[in-house]
Design brief:
16% of the residues lie in helices and 28% in strands. The protein is of the alpha+beta class and 307 residues long. It has one domain: Jelly Rolls, CATH 2.60.120.200. Strands 1, 3, 4, 6, 13, 14, 15, 16 and 18 form a 9-stranded antiparallel beta sheet that branches. A 7-stranded antiparallel beta sheet has the order 2-5-17-7-8-11-12, with no helix packed on it.
Amino acid sequence: MNPVKYGAVSAFLFLFAGVALSETPAKDPVKGIQPEAIPGLLSFWDFQGEGERRLTSRGKYRYQLKEMHGEIASAPEGVFGDSALSILPLQWLMIRREDCPGLNLHGEQEVSMVAWIKRSHDGPWQYIAGVWNERDARRQYALFTCGHRETDWKTLERSEARYRAMGYVSELGGATAGKPYCFSYGTGGTLLQKDHWHMIAFTYDMKAIRVYVDGQLDQNGNCNPFIWSEPIFDGGKEGADFTVAQRPLPQWPGYPVAAPIHSEGFAGLLGGLAVFDRCLSADEIAGLQQGTMGRKKKATEVATSGE
């Protein structure tokens, strides 16, 4: 073969291959989805409307939250519409256990929780929601933020951590064996900004607890994912209620009638809350972020630009 011609052909093939490689299509962008489009949804609150509608869930189960310690106002901004719950310190909501049997997840059971929040203060252990009673050792599952300790799954030793998202499951209802409290929880690595919207979530598949922030697995060494494979505690008929923004603590003897007398709990805006009876995939979590917070961001940008 003519060396000149051979060299020219080789150069052409090399350039063609380089172009082909450089133009390899990127991974398809995540498509936005809504909570009700995801299999396994038990209850989803968007906190839109007025009266009972505002506090009644959609999904497989229609459960109505009850406001505790005063009426909870609506803020004129939200994720799923133009409003969100504006929860003040020590305000909370609940559903009696007997009135929400569909949320009583226990045994060898997967679970996922997602919440859209804008926290307004820096207090510790800001409980978002779940079936979680620490006063009477009837913990099952819960979503938190702003705890001040994270746990290493290998050693069950804890270290300082603040303003993170946390997902809990309990196998005993009370403290982890040999520990003063429940240590089976995942803790994300992202510091959640105050007065800023975040979508936080956790999943459990009987293999690990995984915490997500703004649609992404919030990796944090041995603290997230948190390797765990124990069944969820079965509280029976006397188990925990489903509560939002507060959970029963030993220093709250008057629960649920008396107002909380401690300094813990969530305060800020709650734009949505969803509970699933399966472990959502990373793609589903990313899709939720795109379909909810992504849409909210786009709407905000349009409003700001005056289009």
